[in-house]
UniProtKB/TrEMBL annotation:
Superkingdom of the organism of origin: Eukaryota
Catalytic function, reaction form: an L-aminoacyl-L-amino acid + H2O = 2 an L-alpha-amino acid
Full protein name: Dipeptidase
GO cellular component: side of membrane
Group of enzyme by EC: hydrolase
UniProt topology in membrane: Lipid-anchor; GPI-anchor
Family listed: Belongs to the metallo-dependent hydrolases superfamily. Peptidase M19 family.
Oligomeric and partner information: Homodimer; disulfide-linked.
Keyword Signal included in the entry's annotation: yes
Species for this entry: Dreissena polymorpha (Zebra mussel)
Subcellular compartments: Membrane
Cofactor: Zn(2+)
Amino acid sequence: MLQALLIILIASQISCHPLNTRFVLGATNATIEHIARCALRKNSTNIHLDRARCVLESYPLIDGHNDLAALYGIFANDSVYSVDLNSDMSFVWNHSYSRVDIPKLRMGLLGGQFWSCWVPCDAQYRDAVRMTLEQLDVIKRFINYYPGTFQFVDTSDDVLKSFHAGKIASMIGLEGGHSIDSSLGALRMYYELGVRYMTVTHSCNTPWADNWMVDEPTYNGTVLNGLTPFGKTVILEMNRLGMIVDLAHVAKKTMLDVLNVTRAPVLFTHSSVFSLCNHHRNVQDDVLLKTVFNFTIALFHVLLR
Ligand SMILES: [Zn+2]
């Protein structure tokens, strides 16, 4: 199970907008010793690049959140076959978000990817479940369309097998609890389809959890005060299934409630440190400390400018 692994979370943040989060799964003593040996490398014209390659060629770097599937909807009407991901997609789709293509993923030595399945908040109470299923379909289709590059996986063992076979291990994260439509049955079926983490909320409340916007001073909508009793049941059911709880996008009280109820480590797939960037999408120091001490997760946030 993915949750059983020690997770080193390295979040990268560009200016003040939380964009990319990457983490390495499977850190063991051997991993740490190997990384230490890489750090000792000196005989190179580009020592830092050489050291980075030394680590990434031996252990999979996992990107925790990638919105490519949503771009298929925006730019290609969900048609996988009309898109060539071997092209430079920043020119093909010519949009600031369209930076992901196979040459860049390979150049970055990416070992694994959580492809994000996201549907807008205004689909909540309407067709969020259908839209979610359609986006899961898009993700599975583009993974299968590039069998030499991507391999669908849903266990940590298969992440490593895929990495050692030279593929980018491809997992699925569901971004937003509104996709389950308050149904534990829907949650369980998403797990069956391969979803291995779920972000508790996107930027809207569900009937059972507050999102980050309730922490904004100007917010004047409904406040649930974190997780409702049903929200706690959702978290425990995710724990039982082996679906990781992602706390990007949630309110601070929701983070704290989840940390009190969860029986497994959690993720912040695309958040940053509030004390470095005081946006309410980011994680405050007392929450970070609680995360580290309660769940033995080594968690590092790195600020890039
Ligand atoms: Zn997001």
